[in-house]
Each structure stands twice: as C-alpha cells, then as structure tokens.
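SEQUENCE-TO-STRUCTURE ENTRY
===========================

Backbone structure tokens: a row of integers, each naming the local backbone shape at its residue.

Task: work out the structure tokens from the sequence, keeping to the layout shown below.
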Amino acid sequence: MKVRVLLVLLIVGLLVPFAGTQDEPVTITAWGHNHLPRVELDQEMIAAFMEANPHITVEYEPVPSDYYAVLNTALASGAGPTAFNQFTPFSAQFFLQGILDPVDPAGWGLESIDDIMALYGSGDMAEGMLAGATYDGTLYGIPTEMSAYACYVNIDSWADAGLDPAEDFPYTYEGMVEVAEKLTIRDENGVITRRGFDFNWSAAIYMMLHFVPMVQQLGGEMIDEVNYVADINTPEVKRVLEYWNNWANEWNLGGPEYVVSRTGFRGEERMATECTMGNWAVPGLEAEDSFAPNYAIYPQLRFADAVNPNGFANYGFYWMVNANASEAEQAAAWKLIAWLSSRPDRYLNEAGLFQPKAAYLESEEFKNNEIMPVFLDEIASSYFHPRFAGFNEVIDAIMRMRDRVVIAGEDIDTVLAETDEEVNAILQRVKTEF
C-alpha cells in the first residue's frame, strides 16, 4: 500500500509542474525597414520560430517606404508593432516617451542582464556593442546590425596614379590632401573627372556620422545627449569646418556639387577612395550586375594630432519592444528577438549585417573573414553618434552651417555663433516637450 501511494505521489509530482503550462496563444507584430536580404532571412527565421513555438503567431511587416515616419506615427498613437527594428539616431525619442520595454533575459532562458551582456563579450567590448540601445544604464534593445565606416580604395585607380595603397595610404586627413591630389584627374577646363577622395555631402545625417566624429577626434563634443546642450562655436568645430571648406574651395578636390561619393566609387574612374561605407557594401560591390572595382579596405582617416582614437561614428539597428504591449506579447517578442539574434553567421553571410555575438567573433569562420577585422577595429575604437530627440532638426541645422560656409562663402565665425544658438534653442525646446 505504501509503495502504491508513493508511486502515485511520484507520478503526481512529475506531472504537476506541467499542469497549466500549456502556453496561451498570443499574436505579435514585428516591423522592420525594407532591406531585402534581411527581410528574406527574417521571414525564414520567423517561420521556423512559429513552428517551434506554435502558440506564438508573428505578423511580420517590412515597411516598404518612409519606415521611420510610419513607425513613429504608429507608436505615438499608443499602438504600433509589438517589436520593431530601430535605427539608433531615432530611438532616443521613444525612450523619452516611455515607449521602450527593457530587455527581458527570460526570452533567452537567462536570468539577468549581465547574462545578456556576456553574449556580446565582456567589459568595454560588451558595453560598446550594446551602447546604442542603452539609456540611463538600462538596456532596451538587441543589435541586428552594428556598423562602422572604413575606407575602400580602388586599387586600379591608385595604380594609374603611380600609387600603391599598401605603401601610400595616408591614414591621416593631413596626408590625404597630397595623396588625393595625385589621384585626382581634371579635364582641360579644370573640372574633376575623377576624385581621389571626398566626403559624403549628400544628406544631413552624415554631418552626425562623419563631421561630428572628426570634432571628437580633436577633443570636442558638439552635442551633449544627456543634458541636451550644444557646444558648436569652438576651435575644434571651426578646424573641421575649415578642412571641409578647404577641401572643396581651396584645394578643389571635391565638394557638394559632385555625384555622391558612394555612387562615384561604384562608377568606373569617378572616385578612387570612399570612406563612408561599411561591411554591408561588399555584397553590392561584388554582385554580378554591378560595377565592382578591384578594391581593398583600409582604416578610417584620423587627424595627425587626434586626442581621441575614433574614426567615424558607430551606428546600428536594434530590435526593441513596445512598452504598451501586454506582458504576454512582450514576453513573446523578446523570445522572437532571441531567436532572430541566434544566427549571426547567416545574417552576415546572407544579408551583409554584422551581429556582434561574442561566440561568433571567436569562431574560426569569423576569424578567417577577410573583410571584418578592419570594421571590428573601427567599432572598438569609435563611439556611437549622440542620440537625442530632435535629431533631424539638429542635423539639418548643422548641414546649413556647413553649406553657409562652403557654398555661400559666409564668415565662419558668424556662422558658428549663430548655429550654436540655433541648435541650443532646438535642444532646449525638445527637452521641454518630453
């Protein structure tokens, strides 16, 4: 009798933990921008996720155009997707609005944020990889793409000029002036037909990703993202602005009137050196239907007397979760995100997107990658761009500052002083709005 009772109790004891553990059905939505190679892989991964988790239905929507505006409008309404892939320049507003749900380690079957951090390395490395989605010490997102810029050189164009990048790449902005002059070709009227190097003048965001980091190299900091204060009328900003102005007007080596630098590099004999592309550019350069120069990749340029080691700014995309979703939806979303971040090898090889998981960085496959070491070094030595609400207004103001000097020829000291006032007014207004 005692044996029978004990046996019954044992069976009950084994079954009780499973009683009521049938997960309740839950439907979540997931949005991302329309990067087609990633979309195709996301769709495959999500289908496998739903098969492994039949109680979770994922409605996946790659937004075809105006993704950030559509996402902002949807989330501001109190609705929006459960999970969304967000670009780092635009996440600060969501943080201030209370829209972001802190990362839940349970989605990975882990117990703490320290366990999540360990997936991305240790110490400064882990903090750096996750800094783009960290606010006030709390982690709100998981990286789907970490990017930094390096310099692509067209080896054939350099050879035409009698240069070998392995020997002659200058590594400094000061040295690039002389090298770019040797690489530049002009027609009989002095019009440039091939640039040796140029900045990406095309969109205001590059002022934050390119111009501001050059100021940081010299020890300046144009935007304080914590206190919402700008410091633009400084010797460091003036020196960088003078360099850009001299590049276009004194040295006649490029400028905003020419084709976008990235486009030029992909076009034969129009651009010898392009320093505003990440590792994601490689699949496009090597695609069968595109012009692919015989290229090599070198580190980002620095000022010879730089006091900080950074190149251009780090940036990224992070999966984030809507704080307005239900607890069940949030839990399902983090579980999905854990799944989508489990194959960094496939996202790099098939979509050109770098997910910096520590185990992958230690793999033989990654160590044998010929492209990534330069970009990993750039990420490790550089910083994320400032993240703040009102981002677009501020970068537009900084771009106007540049164009007032470079295109309109206005007095640089006057422009710096007026831009400082303008940007501080924007930041103070935005700060009070949130």
User: Anything to note?
Assistant: The mean pLDDT is 91. The CA atoms of residues 197 and 273 lie 5 Å apart. The longest strand covers residues 26-33. The longest helix spans residues 412-433.
